[in-house]
Amino acid sequence: MSDSKPTPQAGDVTSFRKLSHLEICLHQPVEAHTSPHWEDFQFVHRAIPDLDWEEIVTTTQVFGKKLSLPFMAAAMTGGHPEVRPINEAIARVAEKIKIGMGVGSERAAIEKNHPYITESFQVVRSLAPTALIIGNLGAAQFSRKGGFGVKEAKAAVSLIGADVLAVHVNPAQEVVQVEGDNFFHHFFTQVSDMADQLNVPVILKEVGSGFAREEAAKVDASPLAGIDVGGLGGTSWIGVEALRAEQKNDTFHANLGRLFWDWGIPTAISLVEVRSATNKTVIATGGVRNGLDAAKAIALGADIVGMALPLLKPAQQGDDALLGFIQHFERELRTAMFLTGCRTLSDLRQAALVVTGLSRDWLSQRGIALAMPWRK
Ligand SMILES: Cc1cc2nc3c(=O)[nH]c(=O)nc-3n(C[C@H](O)[C@H](O)[C@H](O)COP(=O)(O)O)c2cc1C
Hints:
The protein is an alpha/beta fold. The protein has one domain (about 30-375): Aldolase class I (TIM Barrel). The chain has 17 helices and twelve strands. The chain has an eight-stranded parallel β-barrel with strand order 4-5-6-7-8-9-10-11, surrounded by six helices. A two-stranded antiparallel ribbon has the order 1-12. Strands 2-3 form a two-stranded antiparallel sheet. Helix 1 (about 15-25) crosses helix 10 and helix 2 (about 85-95) runs parallel beside helix 4. The site of flavin mononucleotide has 25 residues, from helix 1 and helix 14.
């Protein structure tokens, strides 16, 4: 890596857009006004747990990497020198406590291979040499004529020594974004072909509107390795774009974003939709806010969960704040396991769950068995 500190130049549009997204997420309310619907799924309390707290094991293995917790820092950032300290803190903590980490979209680095853009990504693998690291590119870039293909995907993997590449699918965000790319026609074929030729697993990732079982079935039948459900109820990327449009006095996109702010499939419901259609790896992001949410996500079929927004401020404050946050999360997860009598995450996948509210109506109308037979 170079020691020089070059400054970003005007014209590095993708890099600067990422920075404005981060500023908005740090300083404005960007979450959905509706919940991920974890509250519709209730564990049955076990008054005679028949296990000691110390016996609880939260380790798991995903994409060939052993994790101490079923947890990753979801894709957030990279591509600008100002965000480097955030990636550094997350990478150090990921390596120290063996959790996963996704980097933010590497598009800027692929479009412009300049050290001031690439270094904030590369630092991740150098500080986390053994952690599960997930790269990131956008579906819209694969859909364009002459857009991204295997070459760019390989570059994104090699930039950070990624174990997995996530392709984010964000039609709702793009359509509300002032300068959005509304090209999604060919992406699935393109990305499936790319996944066939890449030497690491490729997953699809939503960013806040979730996946239905129809899309999960397509992934199941493709060379793709899994899905990050990225459901509704956490950070609203439609909302972030509405706020950006307001800053730019673009009333049309601002109003569109306000109208569709809460568009999508709530994360808990999306997880059930997805799990009803595939046995591939499933990550739950979108409004996971504590270890109890995570326990429900695991019980509903997630292999691991991811958090983005809640980690942003602790990561900015530094390693200790981030570690403290994750320790709290661990204690909450263990408590849920203790009170359901689950020693391992596999036990949690079979813990009794009662389905109520919107989720019950939704699953019934969609013809998805409330007993979730794949859980047994
Ligand atoms: C500041 C910030 C930047 C993000 N950038 C990306 C990105 O570049 N690529 C991506 O796939 N998801 C990105 N996301 C989405 C998250 O990975 C995650 O799917 C989403 O925010 C839902 O999780 P949350 O409710 O815990 O924030 C970003 C999220 C935040 C908060």
